[in-house]
Amino acid sequence: MTASLSGAATELRRSVLPNGLTVLSEYMPGVRSVALGAWVRAASVHETADKMGVSHMLEHMVFKGTPTRSPKDLALALETLGGSLDAYTSREHTSYQAHVLDEHVAEAADVLADLIFRPLLREADLELEKKVVLEEICTVEDTPDDLVFELHNELVWGAHPYGYSILGTRDSVKSLTTTDLRELHDRAYHPDQIVVAAAGSIDHDDLLGHLAGAGWLDIPRGEKGAMQRVPPPALPPSRSHFDRDTAQTHVVIGSRSMRHNDPRRYAMTLIGTLLGGGMSSRLFQKVREELGLAYAVHTFQSFHADTGMHGVYVGTAPESAGAAMDAINGELTRISEEGLPEDEIAAGKNQARGQITLSLETPSSRMYRAAGSELYQEPYHGLDEVLAKIDAIERETVAEVCRALFAPARQTVVTLGPSAP
């Protein structure tokens, strides 16, 4: 079944194939490349504590060879054509992507099918790759402005899988076996649990033909249904300090927010932009420009299928951490009590419109947007529709979100550095 989901200036086409594979594409005139990706509905949110990191390890291991390609063959297959091949594991999905010239989509579809459906998953490769992932964990631990987010995430979500490290722990990574990888692969890597999205110089029917030629349509539907997940339990806000011999104290102040398809998400994004999304934001102007307390200060947000998170990061000298946190909490208090004025909201809308428009000028960004509409079961909106939603954000909605989510008393605070602020 193929359908067209039209926007004002573009068209997304969608097909659900007999084996359950969902395929989306968006044609972009004026480009000569295609971004092609596959999203598997299996990631860290579906893991148990003793198997933490297995989704990420499987993502690594598929690159270690297939029956027809060595690891080097996989690396060369698209790079020698001027293209690229990449993958990542998130909290909810594992994704494999290629970016190639439009004349090489067939090759990209074939390489992705080989990776996703036919990995060798050999014991000797796993033992080597464990070393690589353990080095990746060490990199995070040696990067305090990454580590502080991991620590904050653990406190916000507790023992729920949202609080797990995507990479896993040293112990969990060391304990993984090829049986664990094969069980996950057999459980999740089936067409009915995969979304394929493409954008750029690509016709939808041609894309379906390339996928058929690469064997995507020959892979059977899975037998066990969707991966299961449990809702996160409610936890009170908390505050923790982690001693570390660093030049700065790294601070994350944040809490749970809203799910991806919450209609207030646009207002939430606007608030994040105005609070700490750039040089003109309140926190940048206050903490850096006015008080000189930090080089880096910014907001962050993430939206999941059933919940979300938001917060503020700042890195500052240990003796300035208390003052920086006071300044941040002052702004959080102000917006939670007062909301944001109309003129600031209007400026934020202009900024958001420009950022969204600019961000959608590449095939990769259009591919991500297409995949997201399917993964989160949301209606597809063309650019003009998205911009209209930004314009429709009302001051009262902004104030409501500020009251509900930004008061300092509801935030979990983590500091990492030589002494507690």
What features would you describe in this structure?
44% of the residues are buried. The mean pLDDT is 96. The protein is built from 15 helices and 12 strands. It has helices spanning 54-61, 71-79, 105-117, 123-141, 144-157, 170-175, 178-188, 204-213, 265-276, 282-290, 321-338, 342-359, 363-375, 383-391, 395-405; strands at 2-6, 11-16, 22-27, 33-40, 84-89, 94-101, 194-200, 239-243, 249-256, 296-303, 308-316, 412-417. The chain has a 7-stranded mixed sheet, sandwiched between helices. It has a 5-stranded mixed sheet with strand order 8-12-9-11-10, with helices on both faces. By secondary structure, it is an alpha+beta fold. Helix 10 (282-290) packs antiparallel against helix 11.
Produce the secondary structure layout.
Layout: E1 2-6, E2 11-16, E3 22-27, E4 33-40, H1 54-61, H2 71-79, E5 84-89, E6 94-101, H3 105-117, H4 123-141, H5 144-157, H6 170-175, H7 178-188, E7 194-200, H8 204-213, E8 239-243, E9 249-256, H9 265-276, H10 282-290, E10 296-303, E11 308-316, H11 321-338, H12 342-359, H13 363-375, H14 383-391, H15 395-405, E12 412-417
Parallel strand pairs: 3-7, 8-12
Antiparallel strand pairs: 1-2, 2-3, 4-6, 4-7, 5-6, 9-11, 9-12, 10-11
Helix pairs in contact: 1-7, 3-8, 9-12, 9-15, 10-11, 11-15, 12-14
